[in-house]
Amino acid sequence: MEIDQWRREYLRGGLSREDLKESPLEQFSQWLSEAVESGLSDPSAMSLSTVDANGQPSQRIVLLKGFDEGGFVFYTNLRSHKARDIATNSQVCLLFPWQSLERQVIVYGRAVELSRDEALAYFHRRPRDSQLAAWASHQSEVVDSREELDRRFAEVKARFGDGEIPLPDFWGGYRVVPQEVEFWQGGSRRLHDRFIYRRDDEGGWKAMRLWP
């Protein structure tokens, strides 16, 4: 079969206005819980889109590490490609592709760097090897070989021994403060259900249905 003939119907169910919670964070919390309960692989994985100073967009998968009414949190090397983009343009987009549930969530917002205290608290909850990897990697820079990466990790591991690993000054996190949040549920005949939450004049949220 030719690739332009690859298709299927979306039949898992619809999304109505009556289904929606008052705020997008409440709605997201419900959908995330359902993604976890369904056994979906990596339910916290999200595509993060950024745009550099030349207008070139880029995407990568990162893991959601927390969310509340203030926004969606992730962590990274602060010298990475994504961090350099955010330094020049803080407007970003998140996409949660829950395909087996025929759902997507899209977050449009602004990335705000977390405090060092917030980054430190999370850093020390990471597995020890993940802490070491943060020190070892010059994220997004060119490396000659896998052997060079492994050598660098071994050096860092020997350097810190069994002691506490400090937070690198080049490592931290961001909170994506949402401006709009869209919930997409697949529908038959390509008549999908889409609702977008937008801020109203009082700072609350208003949900509107979109054409599919």
Morphology: globular
Mean pLDDT: 96
CATH class of the largest domain: Mainly Beta
* Percent in helix: 25-40%
CATH fold node name of the largest domain:
Pnp Oxidase, Chain A
**Secondary structure tally, helices:** 5
Q: For the terminal residues, how far apart are their CA atoms?
A: 26 Å
Element-level helix/strand string: HEEEEHEEHHHEEE
User: In the CATH classification, which architecture of the largest domain applies?
Assistant: Roll
Low-confidence stretches: none
Largest sheet: 9 strands, antiparallel
Classify the beta-strand content into a percent band.
25-35%
Strand count: 9
Radius of gyration equals 20 Å
Description:
The protein is of the alpha+beta class. It has 2 domains: 3-124 and 169-210, Pnp Oxidase, Chain A (Roll); 128-166, no CATH class. The chain is 25% helix and 33% strand. The chain is built from 5 helices and 9 strands, in the order αββββαββαααβββ. Strands 1, 2, 3, 4, 5, 6, 7, 8 and 9 form a 9-stranded antiparallel β-sheet that branches. Substrate binds at residues 65, 122, 126, 130, 190-192. Its EC number is 1.4.3.5. InterPro entries: Pyridox_Oxase, Pyridox_Oxase_CS, Pyridox_Oxase_N, Pyridoxamine_oxidase_dimer_C, Split_barrel_FMN-bd.
Q: What features would you highlight for this structure?
A:
5 helices; 25% helix; alpha+beta; 212 residues; single chain; 9-stranded antiparallel beta sheet; 2 domains; Pnp Oxidase, Chain A; 33% strand
Summarize this structure briefly:
This protein has 212 residues and is of the alpha+beta class.
